[in-house]
Write the structure tokens for this entry.
Amino acid sequence: MCDLVARTGRHQQRYEGGRRLVAGCIPFRYRDNNDESSDDEQKKLVEVLMINSQSGPGLLFPKSLRADAPVSSLLTDHINVCNPVGGWENDETVEEAAAREAIEEAGVRGDLVQLLGFYDFKSRKHQDEFSPEGMCRAAVFALHVKEELAFWPEKNTRQRSWLTVPEAVEQSRHPWVQDALVTGFSVWLENWSNGGDRVDRSAR
């Protein structure tokens, strides 16, 4: 049984310039690479966690939506999939919103190690008086997963799958998610693996 409860409602969500502000993350982990032809340095394989979306075929990641200060599952049967992303609310920081959404939607905890960037997208389900066209801006983080929960708030409606980045890109139906995986996560991971800064403070 899960003691955690997912937040609901839109009264605390953040907007800026006609866009709803959302926060999310790309959860990732390392696992052993069983390819015997690989060099020693390549023995660890990076996988990202994706969850099924409830609106149609494709991939997404955990995201969350929030409300004031400015921001200056994957399944092979073609169920809609995504990363954890959702409302960034006015009583939490953007980092807290991203970490919360990872727990609520994907049932994972870990370390937020990098802000990957801001990604704009349009969503009909997010149309309202403050964002009539359903425009959203997502702050997306890399989350190094340390714990996978057996029970989480959206367990009954979400399924999660670990995929390589190419697999996740191929199965994602949203261009902005593909962009976050390729130009955001992959570029940062290569830099971090080669001794780059853990967090680029200038990106904030």
